[in-house]
Amino acid sequence: MLKRTILSVLLGLSFGNVSVAQDKQIPVEAFVEQEQFSIPRLSPDGKHIAVSVRIKRNERNVPTLTIYTLPELKIAATHILPGFEVPVNFLWITNNRLAIKKGLEVGDREPPQATGEIIAANLDGSEVEYLYGYQNFKKSKRGDRYNNDYSIGMISHIPETRDGNIIVSTHEWRRPRTNLIEINSNSVIRRTIADIAMPNLDFLHQHDGTARLAYGVDENNNVAVFRLDDASKEWKSVAASSLGRGYSPIGFSPDDKSLYIEQSEKGEPFGLVREDMKSGQRTVLVKDALGDIGSVEYTSKPSMPFAVTTTVGIPKAQYLQPDAPDAQLHKTLSAAFPSAYVHFINFSDDGQRLLFSVASDRDPGSYYIYDRQTGQADLLFANKSGIEPDQMALRKPIVFKARDGKELAGYLTMPNNPQQKKLPIILLPHGGPIGVNDSWYFDTDAQFLASRGYAVLQVNFRGSSGRGPNFLSAGEREFGGKMIDDLVDGLKWANALPEIDSKRACVFGISYGGYAAMMVPIKAPSLVKCAVGYSGRYDLVARFSQGNIKGETKSINWLKQYMGDNMEKLAAESPVNLADKVKVPVFMAHGTKDETTELGQAERMRKALIEVGNAPEWLLTKNEGHGFYDSEHRKEFYLKLEAFLKKHIGN
After folding, report:
1. Is 362 a domain residue?
2. Per mean pLDDT, which range of 239-253, 351-365, 619-633 is the poorest?
3. Backbone phi, then psi, for 261, in 5-degree steps?
């Protein structure tokens, strides 16, 4: 297939997805394979690419920073971090030097957790400096200059001057403050730029390097924005009344006179807005009635937005300046991949080379380099080599109304069904649940299930992200209420479709989805024939005593706002206390080192089911966190899931 070979895409030649008959079952190993390549970054001169590559280490595929030369695509260096530390992010400081943000993997279903440490290294691995972090004194060659940093460091900005400096925002553990400091990546000398009495703020920098805005949420999870005043050199709080329900600045115009923001004025979906920095006048550029702004495409330097997508349905670029050169380039590249979405990652500083990605509902994603001088785009890396997009199922956007009239959206993945027979269906609720959503792009679980003959329904129930603050707020204190009702209503809607066999339905979920997998048969006992919980949470009350939120005011307030603090109500909506109402066969899977939904959650749910005579099928995997990393463990789970579903609803 085209995407699995190194090729040159001659612009103007269109590669469509040709339907290929699936004459044999796709092996489970194709879905078990993790994405090998992620977060690629093109160097400022366009001669190298840095990318996170999963490399086998101690029976696990661990992300490792690898540098390749261009156009040869030869490995120039590999940066191996100690233990199971991984590069969470990295940015080019100069053509020869990178800043690396360190983190730890906590489970396949969770993003890596940043440790708050930042190091710098040359592309060949030399001149490694520990720039910021809690082990500063131990790790830095110049540790006698600075003691350990009792805070978390985040890469905020790389100056366009490429002078070897980086800007780091720091978030203290002991004081509610955010500092912004400039660090020389070679000498490690620091200079304080900003000091604001509010924790966990992000900063937005102008093209001239000035940090102009700081933004985040306060301890009550309300939007907070600070703006640097040139006259007084002070950071002044922006009046909440001018921010609306949501306000997120994303960039400046080339002359720094205008600001681009994603804003929701009254709780509606976020739109793209341009704000005049002097007058404050705002102009709405893109707004959608149903979905937030999704992807934002940026031009070459001086960088500014030129196109956006929205989060509901199939992503489609809406161009702010359709005739601009980079917009024309995006249109041309998109025409070469008509069934996928093209995303610009970054340009070389001179704008002559572009790193971009191509992905779709059937394609896990590939990375290309485009050269303006030759007019060619060359394939660099393709993820999940065992997946052939032509054999994958289409993911169809859906919209329906819940029982109270609220409009809901989601996706229905329909397997190849040449015989037009009625299909069993799997309800697949996402995790989170607040601020998370299912998208159109390739979903491994959905595609695996579709390859086994199941239709797969995913509903972005109230509380999901992508629909604006009002939709998010509609999920407050509804974990076991209207969120579950939305899932039930979605399955009832799908069951009415002529191609769905409503008598053969199951629910399978991960994390909060595991909770929902138990609650659906409790609230709608006749709707599903089986339930699967993977790394699930089954006791809502216990969330308040979980180790990673103890004493954190902001986290506690978040739980009270979204989950609620009526412990009797939460207990009454916890499956661990309702096992006698689960009348369907259950399969549960969990990892022994899961710190997101602790093992005790699953063990108590299992015990409760056994006590009422409904012993679940059980998979306990050692040394795994919130989702399984080890390929053999992932394979074992999928095979057990496949057998469980076949036993109870066929295929």
Report:
1. no
2. 619-633
3. -135, 155
CA distance 411 to 449: 14
Contacts of 491 by beta carbon, 8 Å cutoff, 6+ apart: 425, 427, 457, 505, 507, 520, 524, 527, 528
Cβ atoms of 286 and 308 within 8 Å: the answer is yes
* Residue of 558 and 519 predicted with greater confidence: 519
DSSP codes of every residue in 552-596: -HHHHHHHHHHT-S-HHHHHHT-GGG-GGG--S-EEEEEETT-TT
Instruction: Please say whether the beta carbons of 188 and 237 come within 8 A.
Output: no
Between helix 482-495 and helix 512-523 the angle, nearest 10°, is 70
CB contact at 8 A, 249 and 282: no
Answer yes or no: is 67 within a domain: yes
Give the tokens for residue 580.
């006698």
- Identify which of 523, 524, 520, 542 has the alpha carbon closest to the alpha carbon of residue 602: 542
Please check whether residue 277 is in contact with residue 251, taking contact to mean a CB–CB distance below 8 angstroms.
no
Q: What gap in Å lies between CA 191 and CA 29, rounded to an integer?
A: 51
Minimal CA–CA distance to 180: which of 205, 160, 208? 205
The pLDDT tens digits for 99-158 are: 999 988 766 666 777 888 999 999 998 999 999 988 876 665 555 566 678 888 999 999
The mean pLDDT value for 277-303 works out to 95
Q: Give the integer Cα–Cα distance in Å for 156 and 181.
A: 9
Does the pLDDT value for residue 13 go beyond 50?
A: no
| Domain ranges, residue 185 | 37-200
Domain with residue 128: its CATH number is 2.130.10.10
Q: What is the mean pLDDT of residues 444-449?
A: 97
Residue 136 lies in a domain: yes
| Residue 466: inside a domain | yes
User: What gap in Å lies between CA 460 and CA 430, rounded to an integer?
Assistant: 8
Instruction: Please give the C-alpha separations between residue 625 and each of 459, 511, 555, 589, 621, in angstroms, as whole numbers.
Output: 26, 11, 21, 11, 9
Strand partners, 354: 347, 370
Pairing between strand 353-359 and 318-319? unpaired
Of the candidates 186, 193, 232, 183, the residue with the CA atom closest to the CA atom of residue 214: 193
Taking only the tens place, the pLDDT of each residue in 534-581 is 999 999 998 887 655 555 677 788 888 888 889 999 999 999 999 999
Look at residues 200, 232, 255 and tell me which one is the last residue of a structural domain: 200
Predicted local distance difference test score (pLDDT) of residue 146: 65
Residue 326 pLDDT > 90, yes or no? yes
Q: What distance in Å separates the CA atoms of residue 94 and residue 43, rounded to the nearest whole number?
A: 8
- Here the CATH number for the domain that contains residue 508 is 3.40.50.1820
**pLDDT for 81:** 82
Work out how many domains the chain is built from and give that number: 2
DSSP class per residue in 239-272: PGGGT-SEEEEEEE-TTSSEEEEEEESSSSPPEE
**pLDDT value of position 547:** 52
Q: Is the pLDDT of residue 9 over 80?
A: no
pTM above 0.70, yes or no: yes
Domain boundary residue, one of 156, 184, 200 = 200
- The answer to whether 596 touches 626, Cβ cutoff 8 Å, is yes
Residues 619 and 640 sit within 8 Å (Cβ to Cβ): yes
